[in-house]
Amino acid sequence: MQRSDKRGFKIYASADQAHQDQRIGRIVAGDREAFRALVCDYHPLAYSLAFKTLNNRQDAEEVVQDAFVKIYHALDGFRGEASLKTWILRIVLRLSLNRRRDRARTAWHRLGLNRRNAESEEDPGNNVPIFETPESLCISREGQRRLRQMVDELPESLRQALVLNSFDELSYEEIARILDIPLGTVSSRIYSARRKLLKKLENSDLF
Amino acid sequence: MSLLPWKRKKMGTDLSAYIDGELDAYRAAELSEDLVFDPRLQNKIYRLEQISALAGASLEPGPLPDAKIAADQILQAVEPALAPPLAAPQTRKRLKPALVASVGLLVTAGITFAGLRRRGLV
Predict the structure, then answer these.
(1) N or C: which end of chain A has fewer CB within 10 A?
(2) What are the sequence ranges of the domains in chain B?
(3) Interface contact flag, B75 A32, Cβ < 8 Å
(4) pLDDT tens digit sequence for A151-169
């Protein structure tokens, strides 16, 4: 039977939760392999979120490593009110935002001296298109870079909602849990982010 | 389709949720019907879909790092926690004050003995 909390979010009370509890129990007891399996399961998602927030490979890898170390130490306090996935992503997002804030404060970043570095990371192959969607192939690499810049310039709350919405595997409800905001706010933030981006695009020569 | 500003925003939010498949079944069916006959709505949906795809593509992380290698590095970082240290270092910690006390006692005894000897009492 599925229960809901006071905000109407489903409480995970099923075989999944039993499996999750068992897994956490094993990790807390010091089972190295159980923790290794957990990292392998969630690393791709965690890394993608960190990268999408930071737009820098090295920063994303460091943040994810730091996040999993923190997750390991905090696991015995995990209460199971949310799924493990949303809990992990919440930690990754928080650490990524901290890193983003710290980075913005450094003179190096303020002077834009990291730009070259970021560009080279966005271009892992020489002639191979990075993105597979037909839309992405219609705009140039420079266009993609500028679009990414437009996303980065969105107000923080809208950007976070948009970044999380770019994951197919995350529903609005899960995004609401990660950001700790009501479901309706998720919808309106995603729409506002899209509308602002559309306006920016219309004012540029990309669209 | 001239809507009041708040209704326009509500409609926009609904359309945005519609393309994400997040609208409740009843409202989604309503919108699907409207979409058939309303070219302005069709255009709005098309633009929202386009911007959603473009934004998604611009955020793509590219090739992901190997999760197994990353897991090994993370395990190394939490290793002390996974393998608690043996009791040996604690014993050594306790030994240190005992050693200092013994040396102190020996020095005191030596000085006392030397003093007594100088006075010819021993």
Answers:
(1) N
(2) 5-59, 89-122
(3) yes
(4) 999 999 999 999 999 998 8
Q: Does B116 touch chain A (CB under 8 A)?
A: no
Which member of B16, B50, B68 has the closest CB to residue A190?
Answer: B16
A87 to chain B, closest Cα gap in Å: 18
B103 touches chain A (CB under 8 A): no
Smallest Cα distance from B92 to chain A, Å? 25
pLDDT of residue A129: 37
Q: How many domains does chain A have?
A: 2
Element (DSSP H or E) covering residue A10:
strand A10-11
- A165 touching B, CB under 8 A? yes
Please check whether residues A166 and A106 belong to one and the same domain: no
Contact (Cβ atoms closer than 8 angstroms) between residue A89 and residue A166: no
The number of residues in chain B equals 122
Question: pTM score, two decimals?
Answer: 0.74
Contact A69 B78 (CB under 8 A): yes
pLDDT tens-digit readout, B9-43: 889 999 999 999 999 999 999 999 999 999 999 99
* Same domain assignment for residues A97 and A199: no
Is A129 in the same domain as A106? no
DSSP state at residue A9: P
Contacts of B83 in chain A (CB under 8 A): 30
Identify whether residues A107 and A78 lie together within a single domain.
Answer: yes
Is residue B32 within 8 A of residue B41, CB to CB? The reply is no
Token couple for A1: 């039977």
Which residue range(s) make up the domain with A138? 122-207
Any chain A CB within 8 A of the CB of B69? no
ipTM confidence score? 0.75
- From A55, A83, A114, the end of a domain falls on A114
Contact A42, B74 (CB under 8 A): no
- What is the percentage of chain B residues whose pLDDT exceeds 70? 84
Cross-strand partners of A11? A3
